[in-house]
Design brief:
Elements (H helix, E strand, L loop, with lengths): L1 H21 L6 E7 L2 E4 L7 E2 L5 E2 L4 E4 L4 E6 L2 E5 L3 E8 L3 E15 L7 E5 L4 E4 L3 E8 L4 E8 L1 E6 L2 E6 L2 E6 L5 E6 L5 H14 L21 E6 L3 E6 L12 E6 L3 E6 L6 H4 L2 E4 L3 E4 L14 E5 L3 H4 L8 E6 L14 H9 L30 E4 H5 L4 H4 L5 H6 L1 E3 L8 H5 L12 H5 L2 E3 L10 H10 L7 H9 L9 E3 L50 H5 L35 E2 L52 H11 L1
Parallel strand pairs: 9-10, 17-30, 28-29
Antiparallel strand pairs: 1-4, 1-6, 2-3, 2-5, 5-8, 6-7, 7-9, 8-9, 9-12, 10-11, 11-14, 12-13, 13-16, 14-15, 16-17, 18-19, 20-21, 22-23, 24-25, 24-27, 25-26
Length: about 650
């Protein structure tokens, strides 16, 4: 009997593990700022394209900032900024891991929160850097001489390579040189330069965000809502956000294009500079104007490729008036409390999470068993809500506003509601309709340079050309996990080129686990950034010491008399603080230092002042031995007179009366 129960439990566990493996990540990266020539390459094609604001970034995607260019992207609460001539790739991006391949350039990371099971790793040509605490970090890679500099303004990092590891703490900079045999030296962090000041200014902008009162900072794209809209209160829905400066007749999911991004499939890419959070989280509703309802404040809302309902049916393409037998695709935004049914395969747990973290579901017991044909959608008849385009315009990533066609009311009433656009992607769907032309690319050496990894990354994405035939067999639905694994087994190239594992210290896996988990200390949530560290004085300030004074530009850039904003009660509570881990039983060996610092001068011993010993108390003399006390003399004019008693004075007063 026990053997049967054990077999059943193992079978159930295997089913849940298989379902969890098929779930896509609940978070993505987003390029939200670029200045200059910034290029992008999807992980499943070999072509470089001009980088698009609002295109979701995931495992395998590349970025390149050309000479004089800069870029900023967000992953949850983390802000990543790329300086000029920086080659960047996501080796892994999922719910628990951010792993970056940095082959040259400068990367600044502001880490606001770090979960107990989260890993944040930056891999360079000669070392791997793990960020262990919230704080501000800068990684500089010079590929010409294999030098990596790790600067920690706040937080703590750990550098690993050639079987050795060492920490870099707040206020320090480590310089690592070599490849197979590494050497390093540490010193105080240098003064802030112009690049540091730029990054701190961007951080201060986010810390003053009013939208953080209404949504979680884990919601990617919230930082751009303040400049392009306003928050209002609608009795039925609570706090809503209304875009500002949109043209007459504007409607959600109408100004942008569709792109095919694995593992989600058809993904909306909006044209507006604020157009990320309102199209991948929450719901839209028409209340005389279009308003975005963010839903309940969640610690980490789950990303969705597009929160829309698709309109279809066997005769819908003829009814929208396209003509010529050309099929069409139509959609409208989901409203509050309406369930999103993904087109990709996902577990019931995922479907529940992607809905309850983005809207209020009244009854989520059967949330995974939704019949989309029996629902009255609140936005289906809203002005301008339904958008329709020809299939060829849809699949080629053409701008929707230029390809949209009107939809007659009677055609919409007879159309069916489905949960996917039944259109097979083409190569243009992946590259975003780019027609060609010169695009800045990183040097071939930067693209092919190997980096050192502490954690084994997942296999590289299967090329789109290898998946295209299988995608055509089931239009509109991404391949499931087993299909991808089968295609990956047919690949002739290695699973993940241009990486080599670091030789971990002997105590890397004390429990016999797989990946190396570095030691961590400190809390989980970073304090708000009110000013760069160079502007704060105090004994804990690493820059308040000789040789590390801030630059004049940094001082001039400091904000004057800025008080932090108070936040209402609906702000998500801060994450719990983690306890300090126990000390290592077997600390990792130290790398050979290139330059041995001089031994610290002995601190002079403070001289303790010598106090005089207290006098020795002698025995109290007997009464007969005490010296006679002098007699108290009365005043001259009152000698020989007795001081009248209180009773005598009282009698005198009564006689006078």
């Amino acid at each position: 009997m026990q053997r049967l129960i054990r077999t059943i439990l193992l079978s159930v566990t295997a089913v849940f593990l298989a379902a969890a493996q098929s779930d896509p990540p609940g978070r993505v990266g987003r390029l939200n700022y670029s200045n200059g020539a910034v290029s992008f390459r999807p992980g499943d094609v070999e072509d470089w394209l001009p980088a698009e604001i609002n295109r979701p970034l995931t495992t395998g995607d590349h970025l390149w900032t050309d000479e004089g260019a800069r870029a900023e992207l967000h992953i949850g609460t983390a802000a990543l900024r790329l300086n000029s001539r920086t080659a960047f790739e996501f080796l892994n991006l999922d719910d628990n891991t951010v792993q970056i391949r940095l082959t040259e350039g400068s990367l600044n990371v502001h880490l606001r929160a770090l979960g107990e099971r989260e890993n944040f790793e930056i891999d360079t040509p000669n070392t791997s850097v793990a960020l262990l605490r919230t704080g501000e970090y800068r990684i500089d890679v010079n590929p010409d001489n294999y030098v990596t500099r790790v600067t920690v303004r706040g937080g703590e990092g750990e550098v690993t390579g050639t079987g050795q590891a060492f920490p870099v703490r707040a206020g320090e900079q480590a310089r690592i040189t070599g490849t197979d045999s590494l050497s390093y030296d540490t010193a105080g962090a240098p003064p802030l330069d112009e690049w540091d000041n730029f990054c701190f200014a961007r951080d201060r902008r986010e810390e003053r965000s009013e939208s953080a009162r209404y949504v979680s900072r884990d919601m990617v794209g919230y930082e751009d809502l303040d400049d392009h809209g306003a928050w209002r209160t609608v009795p039925e829905y609570g706090a809503v956000w209304v875009p500002r400066g949109v043209e007459a007749g504007w409607a959600p999911y109408h100004y942008g294009h569709w792109a095919w991004i694995e593992p989600w499939g058809w993904t909306w890419v909006d044209d507006a500079p604020w157009g990320f959070a309102p199209f991948h989280y929450g719901r839209w509703v028409y209340v005389g104007y279009w308003a975005w309802v963010p839903g309940p404040v969640a610690v980490r809302p789950v990303y969705a490729p597009a929160l829309v309902a698709w309109v279809g049916g066997p005769r819908f393409s003829m009814a929208i008036g396209i003509g010529g037998g050309v099929a069409g695709v139509a959609w409208f935004p989901l409203g509050p409390r309406e369930v999103y049914v993904p087109a990709y395969r996902a577990s019931p747990v995922y479907v529940n999470r992607v809905n309850v973290t983005n809207t209020t579901i009244v009854n989520n017991i059967n949330i995974t068993n939704i019949n989309t044909t029996n629902i009255r959608y609140v936005n289906r008849e809203a002005p301008g809500a339904v958008t329709a385009v020809p299939q060829n315009a849809f699949s080629s990533a053409r701008p929707v506003q230029g390809a949209a066609v009107p939809v007659r009311g009677e055609a919409l009433q007879s159309a069916q509601i489905i949960n996917t656009a039944q259109v097979a992607p083409s190569r243009a769907s992946v590259v975003g309709g780019y027609s060609g032309g010169r695009v800045a690319q990183p040097p071939a050496a930067a693209q092919n340079r190997t980096v050192v990894t502490r954690t084994a990354p997942p296999p590289a994405p299967v090329p789109f050309a290898q998946r295209q035939q299988a995608l055509s067999a089931n239009p509109g639905r991404p391949l499931d996990y087993s299909q991808v694994q089968q295609l990956r087994g047919d690949q002739a190239q290695p699973a993940r080129p241009f990486v080599r594992p670091a030789q971990l210290p002997s105590n890397a896996n004390p429990g016999g686990g797989g990946a190396y988990t570095p030691q961590r200390t400190g809390g989980q949530t970073a304090p708000p950034v009110q000013a760069p560290p160079a502007f704060q004085r105090g004994r804990d300030n690493p820059f308040d010491r000789p040789g590390t004074r801030p630059s004049r530009d940094a001082i001039q850039a400091a904000p004057q008399n800025q008080a932090p904003q108070s936040e209402p009660n609906n702000v998500p509570p801060g994450r719990v603080q983690r306890d300090n881990p126990p000390p290592r039983d077997n600390p990792p060996p130290r790398m050979e230092r290139e330059v041995q610092p001089p031994p610290p001068s002995p601190r002079p011993q403070r001289e303790t002042p010598q106090r005089d010993a207290p006098p020795v108390r002698t025995e109290r003399p007997a009464q007969s031995e005490r010296p006679a006390q002098p007699q108290r003399q009365a005043p001259p004019d009152r000698q020989g007179q007795r001081e009248p008693r209180r009773e005598d004075r009282k009698d005198d007063r009564e006689k006078k009366q």
